Amino acid sequence: MAGRRGQAAAPAGRARQAVAGLADEQIVSNVLRGRGEDFEELVRRHQGAIHSFLLRMVRDPDEAMDLSQEVFLKVFCSLERFDPRFRFTTWMYRIASNAAIDQIRKRRSAPVCSLDAPADDGSTGREVAGVDPTPDQFLQARETRGRLEDAIQTLPPEYRQVLLLRHQGERRYDEIARITGLPIGTVKNRIFRAREILKRSLPS
Amino acid sequence: MMTCAELRPLLSFFLEKETGPLETLEARRHLDACPRCRARARTMAGVLQSCSDLPAGPPGRDLPGAVMQRLRALKAASGARGAKWTGLALLLAGGLGALAAPDAPMRRALGRPLSFLAGLVSQGGASERLRELMAESAPGVPQLVQGGIRAGLSDAALGMDATLAVNLLATALAFVLALAIPVALVTAWLLHRDASRSTPLP
């Protein structure tokens, strides 16, 4: 029984490995041709970036998780409308960005949740990713990151959106303009203002 | 030369190498000459570095598994919707077949309204054609009509109008059904097409 299961799992593993080597746009093309299960690789590939972006935008881990699912479902359901001339990630961030802004608009007066505040499970904080702290710089790095996270959360959503797209999503300015539908000058202006706010909040 | 106020909004973009050649040159010249702006540039470089170091990792829960599970649930729901519409279409098609078949009981029950109307149009002589049809579909009626004629009553006075009205009603019903069924089939197809997404579900 276990042997048969093992035999069945082996081709699945090989297929996953083959998909893992493909570019996003090729996987999209596979999915549109009927290989829906390949979509899992896209989710696997971008879950960290999208979830972290949404978590910093909506500031609630459960909400961010639900929103991440919604975003990927929306991405899947809209794959037919994806224009392969553009980068898949730009298009995906556009969907995520709109979803985050919609969510924030829905609940304007939600309480602030610090990423560094103690979590319900008693852990030290709501870490959004695995961090490799060097022993000698651990405290300083942690403090700086905590201040930065808090400062990002105090930014107006429209500033936070463009800043996170730039630094966390690693989007170019023209891509951010396309994602947000704003002129590039407005994008740069918002990012400049956001950085000025962050600069004031961090130790010099 | 660029002033401090002019450099300030450009500083972070200059540090990211996102300024044009002329602006880059001007900014560099200004920074060489202005210690305050150099200090500001160092602080801003730290901000940019901290922002770039923002951690991004997978969420605690199995997001790909959850997404794929929801997609499969969508597929199951879409399949059930498809089956419902297919069932409806088959039912309607069956109804149409029952009506269209030459010796179908439903068609006989309607008194062959289509052929009746066709006969009226093509042959004229409504009264003769009507008697003929009535003899086929409702044997009791001609005797009744004959009885009425023998009693000195005209076709029109005795039941002829009623029979004609019944046949016309049946004809109208058949036309409505004949029109409604294709419309329903097309509507069902359109609804089914909209309900089932184009991206093949996993």
Query: What class, by secondary structure content of chain B?
Result: mainly alpha
Cα-to-Cα separation, first versus last residue of chain A? 63 Å
Largest interface in this structure:
A-B, 55 and 36 residues
Strand content of chain B: under 5%
Radius of gyration of chain B: 42 Å
Q: Strand count, sense and closure of the main sheet of chain B?
A: none
What is the rounded distance between the termini of chain B? 62 Å
Q: Tell me the major beta sheet of chain A.
A: none
Write a brief caption for the model.
The complex is a heterodimer of chains A (204) and B (202). With 204 residues, chain A is mainly α. Helix content of chain A is 68%, strand content 0%.
Give the SSE layout.
The complex is a heterodimer of chains A (204) and B (202).
Chain A (H helix, E strand, L loop, with lengths): L1 H19 L3 H9 L6 H20 L2 H17 L10 H19 L31 H17 L2 H11 L5 H8 L3 H18 L3
Chain B lengths: L3 H4 L3 H5 L5 H13 L1 H18 L10 H38 L4 H5 L3 H11 L2 H12 L2 H11 L5 H40 L7
Helix pairs in contact in B: 3-4, 5-10, 7-8, 7-10, 9-10
Provide a descriptive summary of the structure in words:
The complex is a heterodimer of chains A (204) and B (202). Chain A is mainly α and 204 residues long. Chain A is 68% helix and 0% strand. Chain A contains 9 helices and no strands. Chain A has helices at residues 2-20, 24-32, 39-58, 61-77, 88-106, 138-154, 157-167, 173-180, 184-201. In chain A, helix 3 runs parallel beside helix 5. Chain A is globular and about 55 Å long. Chain A starts with a helix and ends with a helix. Mean pLDDT of chain A is 82; it is low at 110-131. With 202 residues, chain B is mainly alpha-helical. Chain B is 78% helix and 0% strand. Chain B contains 10 helices and no strands. Chain B is elongated, with a radius of gyration of 42 Å.
Which descriptors would you attach to this protein?
heterodimer, A: 204 residues, mainly alpha, 9 helices, 68% helix, B: 202 residues
